[in-house]
TrEMBL record:
Source organism of this protein record: Weissella viridescens (Lactobacillus viridescens)
Name of the protein in question: HAD superfamily phosphatase
Highest taxon of the lineage: Bacteria
Gene3D superfamilies: HAD superfamily/HAD-like, Putative phosphatase, domain 2
Molecular function terms from GO: 5'-nucleotidase activity
């Protein structure tokens, strides 16, 4: 008897290597804009800081996602003291992300195993619709998922319980006992699953120290441990 029948999976940094793609994408944008290697390095570090600050403000509800996209590269250019058009950087960067097909080592065999074992696999991601669809298609991961839910298309994002309400409404066989949320994001995946009242499994590949809240039902550091946790 399987503990769960429905597995809702986060994608970025749970199955797809978003960080790896982000680093490569930024380097390409900076190179295309004519930054030399020293400036590229500096720009990368500054961007990471600025982007993190903006996403933190977004998660607190202080700014919109659009504001992040419209301001991060302009802020970067100001901080570097370089003249340029931030929106052109943003456009190029988005192109890069749309063609980012990196997957985490072992993710494909892992998904194949779960599908073969009879689990219902559902993707539940916060992200840009076009970017996520293209990545699922190009990695071939779309063939493993019965359904794909993207916040952009739903009008609601994790950790809002409304994100899960929509998924459950479309899957009458799903119950809070036979479904688990699996992901690397504490503020999105673990908090979201907790808010809705389903079990959560925190995928902690980077061995980050666990905070006091939110508390996942289980924590795993490898796909192998995740399979053990599910059975
Ligand atoms: Mg993630």
């Amino acid at each position: 008897m399987m503990r769960y029948q429905y597995l809702i999976f986060d994608l970025d940094d749970t199955l797809l290597d978003f960080k790896g793609g982000e680093i490569a994408g930024l380097k390409n944008v900076f190179a295309k804009q004519g930054f030399d290697t020293v400036l590229q390095e500096k720009a990368f570090n500054e961007y990471t800081r600025i982007n993190w600050e903006l996403w933190s403000a977004f998660e607190k509800g202080e700014i919109s996602k659009q504001t992040i996209h419209q301001t991060r590269f302009d802020k970067l250019l100001v901080s570097l003291g370089v003249a340029g058009d931030g929106s052109a950087f943003e456009r190029q960067y988005r192109e890069e992300l749309n063609h980012n097909y990196r997957i985490i080592d072992g993710a494909e065999a892992f998904l194949a195993h779960l599908k073969q074992s009879g689990y219902h696999l559902i993707a539940g991601t916060n992200g840009e619709a076009q970017t996520q669809h293209l990545r699922l298609e190009h990695t071939g991961f779309d063939s493993y998922f019965e359904q794909v839910y993207i916040s952009d298309e739903m009008g609601v994002a994790k950790p809002d319980p409304g994100f899960y309400t929509q998924i459950f409404n479309e899957n009458p066989e799903m119950t809070k006992n036979n479904t688990v949320m699996i992901g690397d994001g504490l503020a999105s995946d673990i908090q979201g699953g907790t808010n809705f009242g389903i079990d959560t499994i925190w995928v902690n590949f980077t061995q980050t120290p666990a905070p006091e809240t939110p508390q996942p039902t289980a924590t795993v550091q490898t796909y192998k441990e995740l399979i053990q946790q599910l059975s």
